[in-house]
C-alpha cells in the first residue's frame, strides 16, 4: 500500500483537498481525504507543497504512429496508409513504436493516458486505441477495448488524393465515399445477423466491411476530423443518417455553430489551437473557441494532436483560460471529459476510490507556464522526472 501526501489535491470529482492524502493499493485508489490515518504497512510518498491531480489525458494524438523523430521525406511516418482512401481494416497497434522519445516527453508533462491513431489523409483511416504511457511493448501499454474508427472530411483527403488525380477530388466526393462504405457495411452487417439464424446465408469474408460492422451497429465510436463549420455539419449529417456514435475532432469553426452543437449534445475535441494559416480550413482558428463552446454548455476536450506536441497542451489550456474558458473546465478538458470520450471514465479522469492510481504531480498550478511537472504515477508506479536532465527515478 502507498500513502500519497500533498499540500493540494485536486480530485476533479469532489473539488480540492488541502493537506490531503491518497491511499493506493495494487494500482488502485482505495481512499482519498483530509483526515486519513496512514496504515502501518503503507509506504509514504510525501510530495510536500506539490499540486496533485489526476493524470492528464489527450484523447486525440498520433503519438508513436507519427513519430517525433523522423527523416526527410518522412520514411518513418506510418500515420497515413495512402494507398486507398477507405482503409477501416488498418490498426494503429501495428505502427506503434514504444521507443519513440515522444512518450517520456509527454509523460514528463503530466500525461498518463493518450489515444493514438491514424491520420486524416483517408476518408476512413482505420482504428486507433488508448494506452498508458509506461511500458516497453505496445501490449503492455494498450488498453483493450478502446478501439475507435477514424473518419476525415475537408481538405486533407481531397488534397492527398485529388492531387494525384484520384478520388476524392472534392468534399462531395469525400462524403460519397464514406456513405458508400457505410452503406455496404450496413448491408454486410444485416447479412451477418441473418446468418446467425441461417448459416447458409453467411456472406463471403470482407476484410474492410468486417472492420466497419461495429461502427454501423453503434458498438464502436467514430472520430471525425472536421475543421470548417460546413464539414462539421456534414459529419453530423452522415452520423445521423447511419446512426453512428460520433465525436467531432478539431471542431475549429465550432464557435460558428455552437447552438447546433449544444442542441445535439455533440462531443467535441478542440485543437491544436496554435496553428498558423497552414491551410484554408484553419484560417478562422480562435483560442477563444473552447470558452465559447463551454459557455454554450458543451463539454470540451483539449488536444495538441501530432506526435509529442501533447507535452505543451497544459500551456495551451492556460491560454484558453485567459480567453474565456474557466479554469475548472480547462482541467476537466484534460481529465474527465477525455476519459468519457474514450469510454474510460470508470477507470481514469478523477481521483476517486476504485479508479486507477494515475496521478500528475506539479510544483504549481498546472495551467501556468512557469509550472513544471515533478512526476507522474501510473497504476501505482511513481516516476519522478527531472525535465532538464531527462532523468527519471521510479518508485513503487
Question: What would you say this structure looks like, in words?
Answer:
The chain has helices at residues 102-107, 138-141, 155-162, 171-197, 207-216, 229-242, 258-263, 289-295, 313-322, 327-332, 336-341, and strands at residues 2-10, 16-25, 28-33, 43-46, 51-54, 56-61, 111-116, 124-132, 148-152, 222-226, 246-250, 268-270, 300-302, 359-362, 373-378, 381-386, 391-395. With 396 residues, the protein is α/β, with parallel strands linked by helices. Helix 4 crosses helix 5 and helix 4 (171-197) packs parallel to helix 6. Mean pLDDT is 95; it is low at 387-391.
Could you name the key traits of this structure?
11 helices; Urease, subunit C, domain 1; nine-stranded mixed sheet; 396 residues; alpha/beta; TIM Barrel
Amino acid at each position: 500500500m502507498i500513502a500519497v501526501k500533498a499540500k493540494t489535491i485536486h480530485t476533479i470529482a469532489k473539488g480540492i483537498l488541502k493537506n490531503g492524502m491518497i491511499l493506493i493499493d495494487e494500482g488502485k485508489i482505495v481512499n482519498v481525504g483530509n483526515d486519513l490515518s496512514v496504515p502501518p504497512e503503507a509506504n509514504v510518498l510525501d510530495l510536500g507543497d506539490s499540486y496533485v491531480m489526476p493524470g492528464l489525458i489527450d484523447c486525440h494524438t498520433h503519438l508513436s504512429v507519427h513519430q517525433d523523430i523522423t527523416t526527410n521525406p518522412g520514411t518513418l511516418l506510418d500515420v497515413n496508409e495512402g494507398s486507398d482512401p477507405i482503409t477501416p481494416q488498418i490498426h494503429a497497434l501495428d505502427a506503434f513504436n514504444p521507443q519513440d522519445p515522444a512518450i517520456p516527453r509527454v509523460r514528463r508533462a503530466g500525461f498518463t493516458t493518450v489515444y493514438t491513431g491514424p491520420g486524416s489523409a483517408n476518408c476512413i483511416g482505420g482504428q486507433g486505441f488508448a494506452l498508458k504511457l509506461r511500458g516497453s511493448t505496445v501490449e503492455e501499454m494498450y488498453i483493450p477495448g478502446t478501439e475507435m474508427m477514424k473518419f476525415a472530411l475537408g481538405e486533407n483527403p481531397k488534397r492527398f488524393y485529388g492531387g494525384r488525380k484520384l478520388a476524392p477530388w472534392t468534399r462531395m466526393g469525400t462524403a460519397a465515399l464514406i456513405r458508400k462504405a457505410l452503406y455496404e457495411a450496413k448491408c454486410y452487417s444485416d447479412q451477418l445477423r441473418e446468418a446467425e439464424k441461417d448459416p447458409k446465408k453467411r456472406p463471403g469474408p470482407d476484410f474492410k466491411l468486417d472492420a466497419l460492422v461495429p461502427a454501423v451497429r453503434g458498438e464502436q465510436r467514430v472520430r471525425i476530423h472536421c475543421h470548417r463549420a460546413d464539414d462539421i455539419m456534414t459529419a453530423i449529417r452522415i452520423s445521423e443518417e447511419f446512426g453512428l456514435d460520433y465525436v467531432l475532432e478539431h471542431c475549429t469553426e465550432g464557435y460558428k455553430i455552437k447552438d447546433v452543437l449544444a442542441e445535439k449534445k455533440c462531443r467535441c475535441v478542440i485543437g491544436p489551437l496554435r496553428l498558423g494559416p497552414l491551410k484554408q480550413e484553419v484560417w478562422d482558428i480562435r483560442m477563444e473557441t473552447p470558452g465559447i463552446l463551454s459557455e454554450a454548455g458543451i463539454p470540451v476536450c483539449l488536444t495538441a494532436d501530432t506526435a509529442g506536441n501533447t507535452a505543451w497542451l497544459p500551456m495551451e489550456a492556460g491560454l484558453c483560460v485567459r480567453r474565456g474558458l474557466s479554469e475548472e473546465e480547462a482541467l476537466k478538458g484534460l481529465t474527465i471529459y477525455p476519459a468519457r470520450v474514450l469510454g474510460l471514465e470508470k477507470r481514469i479522469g478523477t481521483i476517486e476510490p476504485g479508479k486507477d492510481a494515475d496521478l500528475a504531480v506539479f510544483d504549481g498550478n498546472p495551467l501556468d507556464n512557469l509550472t513544471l511537472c515533478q512526476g507522474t504515477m501510473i497504476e501505482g508506479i511513481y516516476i519522478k522526472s527531472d525535465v532538464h536532465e531527462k532523468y527519471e527515478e521510479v518508485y513503487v
